Amino acid sequence: MSLHGTAESTKHTSIVTVNAPGRLHLGFLDPGASLGRRFGSLGLVIDGISTTLDACLSSDDEDHYGAVPSARDELPRVKAHIDTLRNLTGHDTPVDIRLRRTLPAHAGLGSGTQLALTVGHAFARLHGLDLSAAQLAPALARGARSGVGIAGFERGGLIVDGGPRGPGVLPPVLSRFDFPSTWRVMLVFDDARTGLTGPAERQALAALPPFPQALAAHACHLTLMQILPAVAEHEFAPFAQGVSALQDGIGRYFAKSQGGIYTSPDVGRVLDWIGARYCAGIGQSSWGPTGFAIMESQEEAEHALRSARDAQEIGPGLRVEIVRGLNAGATVTWASAQH
């Protein structure tokens, strides 16, 4: 595969900043390919957490990679992506890249895809290449199962994709809605755990039993006839009930591979407690361990958080943030380099 794109005017003395929001993976629709097409995903782009990097062309003919302390572990992947892009495009001008923040790795928030796309977009802009996320993702080995992170990078919102029709082909976007601005997402983090990724993820998927066609039909029915109409009409209760039902079915199917419906039992206890007392769409994003409770308003989310803390349901190892859905994709901005 090669990437060449359409040349733009390169800003040699400028710094490009790419900021990519995180996403929640709300569930697969048919991981067993009961009709011949595998996976299919529902996902939501969220505000408040992101991967951000600055990049410019090097002034001394050498590459420079840097990061804030919390992001240093990601630098080898940044360098690997740059090497891949150079091989594919033929552009080898040295670059300076600094990671300003990253999404938590292996936490179910799409960190790998967003890192690859931020690096890819920065590289393309610096070298005058007009390349989209859909072009960059397969080149950087992203989008093999879900297209939510790629579409979310470009457009934000609540997204449904149709699963890939074959290896190396990105899943098509079937539906994209703006997420209601007043609804909120409570994120529950367990930083002591990580979700499955890489070879472990592939092994876990291969070891799962056949996904029942009836469960796939139920997941598709929930998505098409309950979750999406509720978002279109801003009806929170059926949306929350639909998401919780979708998550319950998928969570039970993956439970053997991840040690339960939730990768983190502590996260699971918090969400079950909230789900029993509030109207909320609860579940785990991807392999977790990050869990979520989608609620109707900021006030409702804050009340639930206070109540859970007062009841001592939120253990010392957990973090909680309340964020919004985001109806826009990544941002790319230019600034003058300081010399």
- What's the architecture of the largest domain, going by CATH? 2-Layer Sandwich
How helix-rich are the residues, as a percent range? Answer: 25-40%
Helix segment tally: 9
Q: What is the third-level CATH name, the topology of the largest domain? A: Ribosomal Protein S5, domain 2
Which series of helices and strands comes N to C? EEEEHEHEHHEEEHHHHEEHEE
Q: Which sheet architecture does the biggest sheet show?
A: 7 strands, mixed
The number of E-state strands comes to 13
Radius of gyration: 20 Å
Structural class: alpha+beta
Number of domains: 2
Low-confidence spans: 6-11
Overall geometry: globular
Mean pLDDT: 93
What is the level 1 CATH name of the largest domain? Alpha Beta
Give the DSSP E fraction (strand runs of 2 or more residues): 25-35%
What gap, in angstroms, lies between the N and C termini?
Answer: 37 Å
Domain GHMP kinase N-terminal: 80-145
GO molecular function, one term: ATP binding
Domain GHMP kinase C-terminal: 228-309
Keywords: Kinase, Plasmid, Transferase
What does this structure look like?
The protein is of the alpha+beta class. The protein has 2 domains: 6-178 and 327-336, 2-Layer Sandwich (Ribosomal Protein S5, domain 2); 184-324, Alpha-Beta Plaits (2-Layer Sandwich), CATH 3.30.70. Helix content is 37%, strand content 26%. The protein contains 9 helices and 13 strands. The protein has helices spanning 75-89, 111-126, 133-139, 148-155, 198-207, 213-232, 236-258, 265-277, 298-310; strands spanning 6-7, 14-30, 39-57, 64-67, 95-101, 129-130, 158-161, 173-177, 184-190, 281-284, 291-295, 318-324, 331-336. Strands 2, 3, 4, 5, 7, 8 and 13 form a 7-stranded mixed β-sheet that branches. Strands 10-11-9-12 form a 4-stranded antiparallel β-sheet. The chain is globular, with a radius of gyration of 20 Å. Residues 6-11 have low confidence and may be disordered. Pfam families: GHMP_kinases_C, GHMP_kinases_N. One of its GO terms (molecular function) is ATP binding. This is Beta-ribofuranosylaminobenzene 5'-phosphate synthase family. Residues 228-309 form the GHMP kinase C-terminal domain. Residues 80-145 form the GHMP kinase N-terminal domain.
